[in-house]
């Protein structure tokens, strides 16, 4: 063992996923439902319990090894201040999560030092370290699913911004979403037209009770099956979402000029009905200086957030100014 063992935890609105990360290898995975409606105390208790299980599983599998000093790395939904480990703000999908002293609470429960970032920021770190953006110095990771989030790495540094809120791509105003309510309480944001729930809403607005899926279609997976079968309103819903996202990302790429844009999240598995208009709209918006910019699917799936969360302990500390990443995949 050449690096300290880390329990990496990915905290989402529906599930909490954890595993041990030792020398870059993710193992002893555990997944449990998030007690999202039960409040912060219940969520913290579940994080601590699943982390204990991972530690136990790992130590049982290596009985001859000396007991290591464990550390905890967390990628969590919400705006997470990486300096204080506090949840600055969060949506109602995690009741009472805003204001939680996340790292201090987990350290108190486990007796292990803890660091945390936003879950999409953790995804961005993971893909940059070992996935689709590996080998680059700058990348933009976009997670398109229930929401639309982003993580930007520039000159090997994760940029979280003054308020730890950098990357909220889903809240860019876009013309295609004019008049549509966004989950944040605003109107006309990208997330209102291009997220998974928005795709479903667009389909139901189009067909009402008349389409073959009608209001019975309740997931993007079911809607994708309808689209694949040739149902035109389902196809248009995915095309509209892909085009809106691609256009917005082209504009973001003009501003940030990364080496690569990586797309992950549940919608990235929607197929060519989504990817083709996304790529077309993206390329249309690029200014000449950045034309040819690579747009790639993410490679690591759910493990990206775990690898990224574990990397918070590779070396040094995470902050808006000091987080850098070496070519060997370590933060310094």
UniProtKB/TrEMBL annotation:
Record-linked Pfam families: ROK
Q: Does the keyword Transferase apply?
A: yes
Name the keywords, alphabetized.
Transferase
EC number from the UniProt entry: 2.7.1.2
* Top-rank taxon, per record: Bacteria
Where does the signal peptide begin and end?
A: none
Transferase: is it a keyword of this entry? yes
Q: Which GO terms describe its molecular function?
A: glucokinase activity
Principal EC category: transferase
Give the UniProt family note. Answer: Belongs to the ROK (NagC/XylR) family.
What PANTHER family does the record tag this protein with?
N-ACETYLMANNOSAMINE KINASE (PTHR18964:SF169), ROK (REPRESSOR, ORF, KINASE) FAMILY (PTHR18964)
- This one is known as Glucokinase
Q: Which organism is it from?
A: Brevibacterium aurantiacum
